[in-house]
Amino acid sequence: MTQARLVREPIDANALVREVATPAHGAILLFLGVVREVNDGRGVTGIEYSAYEAMAQRELEAIASEAAERFGSSSVVIVHRLGELALEEASVGIAVAHAHRDEAYALSRWTIEELKRRVPIWKREHYVDGTREWVDPSGRPVAEVAP
User: Fold this and answer.
1) CATH number, position 11
2) Deepest in the core among 32, 35, 68, 69, taking most CB within 10 A?
3) Stretch 141-145: mean pLDDT, rounded?
C-alpha cells in the first residue's frame, strides 16, 4: 500500500501510523521533519513551503511506489505540507511499515532522501531579523530571483 499527498493542514502523525499498520508488518517507523528555530546559525521564526503541485504530487507518488517495490512487502505514506508553518510544526511526514526493522529503517531513509532530491517543493525561511530567504533542500540559501 502506498499513499502520497500534499496538504495545507497540520500533519496528523497518529493517522499516518494507522495508514501503514497491518498484521503483516513487524516494524513501523514514523519520520517527521519539523520547523526548527535555527538554521545555519540564523534564528528562524517559520517557513513557507511552495510547490509546482501537479509535478510534486506525481513525484511523491512515484517515490512511494518505487520505495514499496525496492524494499518489498512494505507500506509507505508520504505527506508534505505547503503554506506557512510555525516553529515545531511538521512539514513532512513519512510512515513506513515492513515485516523487519532493518528494511523499515532503510526504507524510511531512502524515502526522505529521494523526496529531498527529486520533488519540486521549495522553502522560504523567515528569520528573526525580518528577512526571508529561499533555501535549497540541503538547507543552503539560494540567490533571490529578480522579478
Assistant:
1) 3.90.1170.40
2) 35
3) 54
